[in-house]
Structures are given as C-alpha cells and as structure tokens.
Specification:
70% helix, Diphtheria Toxin Repressor, domain 2, mainly alpha, two-stranded antiparallel ribbon, 2 strands, homodimer, Arc Repressor Mutant, subunit A, 140 residues, DNA-binding
DNA sequence: AAAAATTGTAAGGTAAACCTAACACAATGT
DNA sequence: ACATTGTGTTAGGTTTACCTTACAATTTTT
C-alpha cells in the first residue's frame, strides 16, 4: 500500500527497466532466469508490481513499465549507477565487484551520500594525477 | 547452523559489543530499548545467539560475548567504523547520517571495497589541501 | 514482607521472499 | 494436428524477523 518498495521489488523493477530499455521483450520466465529465482516467485512479485501500478503485464506477453514504474526504476538505477561508478573510478574496484556491491547497497544508501559520491567521481575523473598520487601512496 | 549471521543478528551482536565494551551491564530489556524492538523479539534473537555460542546469557543477568562472539562482533563493528569514517571524513557527511548509513551498509559491503575506503580515508586525512580543492570544485 | 515495577518468555499472528510440485495454458516443430 | 517444450499460476511450505497479549519470574520500592 505504501509507496516504498522493498529491496526485492526494487530488484525486479530495475531488471525490467534495464531489459526493456534494451528493447528486449521480457517475459516472466526470462526474469526468473535473470534473477535466479523460481517462476512462481516472479509470478508473485509481478502481481504485486501490477497492483502497485508500476508495470503492465499479461501472461505470455512482454512486461512493460507504467510511467510511475519507469520513474521509480530510474531512481533505483540511478543509485546503482552512481555507486558502481564510484567504486570503479574512485575506489578502483573491478567492474563485477563494483556491480555486485552496488546491487545490494543501492537499497539503503541515502540521497546525500550518493550526491557526494557523484561529485567525487566527477572530480576524480577530471584530476587523474591526484588519483595517481593516491595509488602511489597507498601502495607503500 | 551456518556461521554467517543475518543482518538482524549482526545488529544485535554489534550493540552488545559496544555496550559491554563501555562497561555497561546490558540486559535484554535494555537491548530492546536500544534497538527499538519488543522484548519478545530480543528474547528470540538472544536464544539464537546463545545456540550459536556467540553470547552467554541468563535471564535477569547481563549479556556477555563469548570469545567467538567478540571476534564476530569486532568484524561487524570494524566495517561500521570504516564506513562511518569514510562518509564523514572523505564525503563530508554529518555524523548522524554517516552512522545511519553505515549501520545498514555494513551488512553488505565487500572486504575489498572497505579496504579501499580505509586507505582513502587515511590519505585524505593526511592531505587536507586536496580535500579543500575538491570542496571548492564541487561548490561551483 | 507486600505491592509495584521491571524483565523475560510463550503462544499465536503477520508479512516478505523464497521454494517445490502439480497443473493449466500457449507456442512451436514436425 | 498433435506432441513436445516452454510459460504461468496455485497451493502448500519454509524461514526470518517482527509483533501483541498474557503470564511468570525477579527486582525494587515503600
């Protein structure tokens, strides 16, 4: 009823967002495979998302986001993206570890911290020399 | 049975760790108040921790950590501390927001990322001028 | 010592996410 | 067109963590 999504539902909607953005015709079973859960779990989750009016879905057809769903998903993905970029470009963590951590942390991190991370990433990409000095220092 | 603690149990053990470290005689009801949950929930959680041999506990007496419990708690708290320091000293987030975020994220962040954050914090504390340059830049 | 307050536990419930098994329905291949 | 494969749903279970209510046990206060 409340408009806050659980971590689980955020994962579903985020995956739907990324897939449909890619032009993929995403069905329930595809989602089950991508998320590594059973078709039954997907079925349950999708009906929750339908009842929250975040997606449109009819059996055997492709899942689509409503306008509200798209907005919600974009917020989640934005968080994911900022975290991943920060982990990779600032903390120099490899891509897959950055993604995995972002996936979990995106559900909990505050807007404020994300905002700082974003500024920080921008700054660091601009000033590579400082980053190099940091790496040199940290390897001592 | 497995030796991995859920986020919830990590919170319990972390709170016990911090309180007892402070010399506090922590009873179940105190824990309930600190964590904002019912005494019944605490009672359940404590018996799980007892059966995992992480704490010692007899009704109406103070809770203590076993050696294994202390080690486990220290690991959790270390994560919390590294995150909080990073948020405060590098990202310039205020203390309470840093703590709140650390509390949630500590259960999910990888060792590797924590390690980078720790190095980063050390570096930044040392080189305040760079931080100042960053702040100037980010306020544009 | 008796009354009052605090503490702990048991019973029974809710909610979220997951599962398997079984079955219905749809799409595809030959 | 019919069999096979793939997809979706239902029903019934599990787990984790929480809750309230009610009661039992222990302290503390008077």
């Amino acid at each position: 009823m409340a408009n806050t999504l659980s971590s689980g539902l955020e994962d579903y909607i985020e995956t739907i967002y990324l897939s449909t953005k890619n032009g993929e015709m995403l069905k329930g079973a595809d989602l089950a495979r991508k998320l590594g859960v059973s078709r039954a779990s997907v079925s349950e989750a999708l009906s929750k998302l339908v009842s929250k009016k975040l997606i449109k879905y009819n059996s055997y057809e492709a899942i689509t986001l409503t306008k509200a769903g798209d907005e919600e998903a974009q917020k989640v993905y934005e968080k994911h993206y900022v975290l991943k970029e920060f982990f990779e470009k600032v903390l120099d963590v490899d891509s897959s570890e950055a993604s995995e951590n972002a996936c979990k942390i995106e559900h909990f991190v505050s807007k404020n911290i994300l905002c700082s991370m974003q500024k920080f990433t921008k700054f660091f990409v601009k000033h590579k020399k400082i980053l190099e000095a940091y790496i040199e220092e940290s390897e001592k």
